[in-house]
Write a structure and sequence with these properties.
Blueprint: E1 7-9, H1 17-25, E2 33-38, H2 49-63, E3 68-76, H3 79-86, H4 91-100, E4 104-111, H5 114-123, E5 128-132, H6 135-141, H7 145-153, E6 157-161, E7 165-167, E8 185-186, H8 191-201, E9 207-208, H9 214-225, H10 232-242
Parallel strand pairs: 1-2, 2-3, 3-4, 4-5, 5-6, 6-9
Antiparallel strand pairs: 7-8
C-alpha cells in the first residue's frame, strides 16, 4: 500500500492466500480494487451455478468483505469449459445473480489459450481479461497480440501476467529448480526480467501482475514506480534474446 499498489488478485487455489489476505487488507479494503477467481483453475474446475455460488461465498468469508470488485472465471483452457459456464445451471448464472446481489461489481476471466480467450470474448461482454503477455510468447509463438486486439475492440480491461517468464524448465531440473514459486523458468534476474516486464507494461494493457517470487515481485514494484517504455533498441535486444527459446504456451491448445 505504501508503494502505491491498489490492485490485489487472489484465488481459492492459491494455498491459504485468501485467509492471509483477508485480515491484511481489512484496514485498507475501501482503498483497493480486490479481484478474486472462481473454481480451482485448470481443466478440473467445476463451472456450475451451485459450485460458483458456494465458492464466492467462501471467498467473501475468508477475505472479510461483502463484495469483490472483480470476479473471474479461472484459467480457461478448454472450449468445454465455456459450454459448461454458459449452459443450463452454469456458473455464469451465479455470477450474474451475485452481481445483482452486490457481491461483485465486474465479471472477467483468465485464460491460457488464445482460442478459448477469443471464443469467450465473442460469447459475452466481459469487463476484463487476465492473460499472458510476454516477449517470448509474442516473438516465438505469436501468442497474445490477437487477444489484446480483440479485447481492445471490446473496450475491456486487460491485465497481463507472465511478464517476467521466459521458458519451460528443462526436464533435468523440473523437480529441483531454484525458484520454488515459479512453475516456469523466469527471465534472468534482474536485467532481462526488468526489460521483459517493461516490454509487457509498454503494450496497450491496463496493468501487469508481477510474479509471486519475492525478488521478482519487488523488482516489479520498482519498475512500476519508475516506469519508462522500452525503446526500439531495447525491444530488438530483448527479442534477440528470445530467439529459439521454447515458449511456455503455444497456439492450438484449446
Amino acid at each position: 500500500m505504501d508503494r502505491g499498489i491498489n490492485y490485489f488478485d487472489v484465488a481459492p487455489s492459491y494455498g491459504d492466500a485468501q485467509a492471509r489476505l483477508g485480515p491484511a487488507l481489512e484496514p485498507y479494503r475501501k482503498k483497493v480494487f480486490l479481484a478474486c477467481k472462481e473454481g480451482s483453475g485448470g481443466e478440473e474446475g467445476d463451472f456450475t451455478r451451485d459450485s460458483a455460488t458456494k465458492t464466492l461465498d467462501e471467498s467473501l468469508r475468508q477475505l472479510r468483505t461483502d463484495h469483490v470488485d472483480l470476479y473471474q472465471f479461472h484459467a480457461l483452457s478448454k472450449m468445454s469449459q465455456l459450454e459448461q459456464i454458459f449452459g443450463p445451471n452454469g456458473a455464469m448464472e451465479a455470477f450474474q445473480a451475485a452481481r445483482k446481489a452486490g457481491k461483485l461489481r465486474f465479471i472477467g476471466f483468465s485464460a491460457h489459450s488464445v482460442e478459448v480467450a477469443i471464443a469467450a470474448m465473442d460469447r459475452y461482454n466481459f469487463d476484463t481479461i487476465l492473460f499472458p503477455i510476454n516477449f517470448v510468447l509474442t516473438s516465438q509463438a505469436k501468442f497474445g497480440p490477437q487477444v489484446i486486439a480483440r479485447a481492445r475492440e471490446k473496450d475491456m480491461g486487460i491485465m497481463a501476467i507472465k511478464g517476467m517468464a521466459k521458458t519451460t524448465w528443462p526436464e533435468s531440473v523440473r523437480r529441483d529448480h531454484p525458484h520454488e514459486k515459479c512453475w516456469y523458468e523466469p527471465a534472468g534476474f534482474p536485467h532481462e526480467a526488468a526489460l521483459g516486464y517493461r516490454w509487457t507494461l509498454s503494450q496497450p494493457i491496463t496493468a501487469a501482475m508481477p510474479p509471486g517470487d519475492e525478488r521478482y515481485f519487488r523488482l516489479g514494484m520498482d519498475i512500476g514506480q519508475n516506469f519508462t517504455p522500452v525503446t526500439n533498441q531495447e525491444e530488438r535486444k530483448l527479442m534477440a534474446s528470445a530467439a529459439g527459446v521454447n515458449p511456455i504456451f503455444r497456439l492450438g491448445n484449446a
